[in-house]
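Contributing new records

If you add data, match the layout below exactly. Sequence lines come first and carry their own label; structure lines follow with theirs. Keep one chain per record. Anything else will be rejected by the validation script.
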Amino acid sequence: MAAPLITQSIEIDASAEAVWAVVSDLRRMGEWSPQCKKMIIRNGPVGLGTRTININRRGPLIWPTTAKVVRFSPTRELAFRVAENHTVWSYTIEPNGSGVTVTEKREVPEGKTTKVSSVLVDKFMGGTTNFEAELKLGMAETLDKIKRAAESSGARAA
């Protein structure tokens, strides 16, 4: 059984708009994520209902997934649901005293992924515990890269 929620947060000294510009540009996901190497937008600009094809990599393993944007609130939240394992990945942006706090989450309703996903994680990715620890470290890496991109954009928080 998968953890129902994995979460990681970071403080960013930039405006919500600057952070949103980075987070919502899903074509750049390969720059941020250590696992999702590419997101291909299938239909129009990113918004509610946008569908993507994703190319993922972990060591020598490469696999595709598809996703659909299920929550989209500019400058506040972006979430997409991965069809192959039913997980929901999200980024929330909350103002704080000097900028924003960005939280990345992986949600697994009731801790249940698909049978195929469970078998692959167990047989090829070191088991659920190891894989989820790796995901949490990956979230920290992703958020750090988002922070650097947003802060270097020059749009500091007021």
